[in-house]
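Example record for the data management plan.
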Amino acid sequence: MRIPVQINESSAEPLYHQIETQLRSLIVTGQVAEGTLLPSIREFAADLKCSVITIRRVYQDLENEGLLRTRQGTGTFVTRVDTDDREEYKKQIVLEAVRSLLDAARSVGYSPEELKALVDETLRKEERK
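Corresponding structural encoding:
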């Protein structure tokens, strides 16, 4: 199975974090369903043109969170995500994005009021689509 993960080479965000964040989102939103057999660490690393160590870390982190389960000799599978857990994961994903937005705004000198106005304007434009 091809996992739709996109790597941004020019991002300051570490590679493993880009992959982990996207894979977590795919699992939490159900785009990669419970029971799905993921590519082997070597296959996924080759697909993404990154190191085996990077993918091993991603799989291990997501297994520690309870989103993946590895069966020796069989592979790594997506586990069941409870509705309550799914909502909490979604909230955490959005909170992380908001924190990144805040950091970016601060780095260019945006005031909280300017940022709020920009977010409100963007939301209004999105609602019109």
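Summary line stored alongside the record: The chain has two domains: 15-78, 83-128.
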